[in-house]
Amino acid sequence: MTGQNKAVSASPRLYAVGGRDSKRAALVPPIAILLSVYNGEAYLNQQLDSFLVQSDDNWRLYWRDDGSQDASRAIMLSFQEHRGQGRCIEVPAEPGNVGVARSYAFLLDAAPHDALIAFADQDDVWVPQKLAWAREKIELLHGPALYCARQLLTDETLTVLGPSLSLERAPDFRSALIQNLATGHTVLLNAEAATLIRPVPPPKGVLHDWWSYLLVLGTGGQVVFDERCVSFYRQHPRNAVGVERSRIIRGARALRRGPKVFMALLAGLVDRLKAPDLGVELSPEARDFLAKLEESLKGSCLSRLQLMLSEREFTRQRTAETWLFRLWFVIYGSRSPKS
Question: Which CATH superfamily does the domain covering 22-234 fall into?
Fold first, then answer.
């Protein structure tokens, strides 16, 4: 991590470290990289090139275009025909723009059921060891498991602004309800996690990465967070979701969004996770906490304050963000049972 906090003007260089031995590769599950593309022509080729120099070359790319109006699909078809020939598959699915979450659901359905699943974004650049590091961390784990990691945040030209923030608290289900730590393009799922997530669509407003993170933790699975930076994560106005290092700016953005949006999203997650047709078996601990949380959302400010006092681990990663959440939860968390 030395020197990653200083901005640099040059674009990152990518070096192939050498592929896995072919006999070894035949014995381990392949990695299915899932990529939904939408008007990404400006950055797409750099992303695709970073796949080609991965030191773990036991991967296949599954992609769909989500109704782009630029050259994105043409770029993907060219990659499929030339540089990525033999390891790039266009997924036939409902045409047009269906949105990020649904597009990735199509891709997940199409991926081999014995594969590890890597989510990808169209505008980021992976370091050559990204897949190898992720596989190494997750391949010996049993049961549903999700790997995620830090990133180098950059501007549009890939000038490094600094690393994303490190963790102050270990991931857990309670905190996952109010903060996603699994940045999508860093995620690797094992086959058990993919099987768990595949038939369970997320609620409105929740993307595939957060939903995967929640379900793995909620069913008693394991989340591995890698403190190494595995990608160059462009921050630009067209990001579907971005990351901000400055705590002041993060706080200002949260205040602009306001408590109603935040609390509505939390209530939606509780409703979805408690729905009879969820289709997965949550752990007893997760079910118990959801019951308490649902009851407090129907109750008074006092009942929500009592929940805060009894569930001290119901927090976000940063202290200031936790206190803002607690204020919003106690004052604005009330809703009627049917709202």
Answer: Spore Coat Polysaccharide Biosynthesis Protein SpsA; Chain A (3.90.550.10)
